[in-house]
Inverse folding.
């Protein structure tokens, strides 16, 4: 198991690599993981989302417990929407309330799959081999927009706003997801705590089935869907999603706050 | 009015520029339109989609005539889904039937807006200035998947398959869209012929409103939605979408056909 992160350096460049004992061992990139030889202290670096996905595929209804609660049948194929690249922020950055939206904003703590190599029509075994590692996603939704128009459910709009896809803090390769739980807290109070073993489609099954539809590229992220305990975030509240081994993804909901985003991004973890 | 195209050169490089009298006057890029000084004969070049969008925003229900026929109210905000970057092909390339899908595949001839500069919270005037030009889109759909699951309409999946977003052949800057019509033929028989003046949200209104939600980046495409005459494409049939001044976007529906795609891509227009 290795922990991989992405940072902005003091000169504004982006560095990616393996993190160990407070240092970043730099690598060329996620799909060409060749060490550059550079070793940097994390103290001088500002964390970013651990990858820069060209697309984020977000699953709906992928946990048995949530399907039972919603009284929906378990799907026979992954049901998904797309979140745009510009919606991605890292841990510590602020989720920004859209200027013209006063409604409910909802968190969903999720496991994220990070693709390591191009993947099309993959078997389940090929799909497993194409997974670089696992991260944490908070799949944020402007919930009141979803069914605002009775003729067209606005999944992409409600979930696609800038800053509505929190990813991080790290990618863990070789992660035994089946034994792990997703724990979400809202201002420190636990709201979600569910086992990943309850997933309908396993990560390799998701990658295999989705790759029959869309070519998946290195750095793309699949958000595996959430389970029980989804709820709304008040302005100023902090959502923290933890998966043991990967870490904690923490983001505040700010109003209008480019400055808040910058301030949070500067809070480098030890 | 200038015509802009993108090509693959013999050495596998991608070139972009202004087309005039059978020659490409190369420019750095769409967002930095600075001439490089190179002038290339089109005979040596293979056409690609005229831009490489990081995201394609596709509108639903944006024409009064179609809204009336579907008996749906005209929306108060653009209703959209996202098509992934990997779904984009140029004119002459083949639409490929997904391996595990035997159902109906549908064409939609549309005007495409190509974004020229980063655009966030833009006024209508700022939005108009951020439009680089206009292209043609065939927004292809695996129609039987859309409502296959009664609990979740699969817009992104049905419209997101590789090759399901045909864009081209060119981008026309300074285009007077209001006077133009979209004409779609299927194997030479006219199926759509509708005026762009019937649009609900004008291009600048679309860019302005969507930029309140998502930051639009240079090269991003907004497909303006279609009107009357949508229909299904039989395997082997050719869909040609024309807008006078921009040109004709022509794509065949192939089964299994990487080879067909390559053969079509090699058919360089004069």
């Amino acid at each position: 198991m290795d922990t991989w992160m992405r940072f902005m350096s003091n000169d504004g460049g982006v560095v990616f690599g393996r993190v160990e004992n407070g240092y970043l061992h730099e690598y060329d990139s996620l799909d060409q993981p060749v060490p550059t030889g550079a070793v940097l202290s994390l103290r001088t670096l500002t964390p970013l989302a651990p990858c820069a996905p060209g697309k984020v595929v977000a699953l709906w209804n992928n946990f048995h417990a949530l399907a039972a609660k919603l009284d929906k049948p378990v799907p026979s194929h992954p049901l998904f929407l797309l979140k745009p690249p510009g919606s991605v922020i890292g841990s510590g950055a602020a989720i920004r309330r859209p200027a013209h939206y006063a409604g409910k904003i909802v968190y969903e703590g999720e496991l994220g799959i990070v693709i390591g190599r191009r993947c099309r029509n993959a078997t389940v075994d090929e799909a497993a081999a194409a997974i670089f590692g696992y991260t944490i996603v908070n799949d944020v939704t402007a919930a009141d927009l979803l069914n605002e128009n009775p003729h067209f459910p606005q999944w992409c709009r409600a979930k696609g706003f800038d800053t509505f896809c929190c990813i991080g803090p790290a990618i863990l390769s070789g992660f035994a997801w089946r034994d792990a739980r997703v724990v979400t807290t809202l201002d420190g109070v636990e709201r979600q705590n569910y086992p990943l073993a309850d997933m309908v489609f396993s990560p390799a099954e998701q990658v295999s089935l989705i790759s029959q539809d869309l070519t998946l590229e290195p750095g793309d992220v699949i958000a595996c869907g959430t389970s029980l305990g989804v709820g709304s975030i008040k302005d100023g509240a902090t959502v923290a999603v933890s998966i043991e081994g990967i870490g904690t993804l923490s983001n505040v909901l700010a109003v209008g706050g480019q400055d808040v985003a910058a301030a949070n991004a500067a809070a480098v973890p030890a």
In short: The radius of gyration of chain A is 18 Å. Chain A has a mean pLDDT of 93.
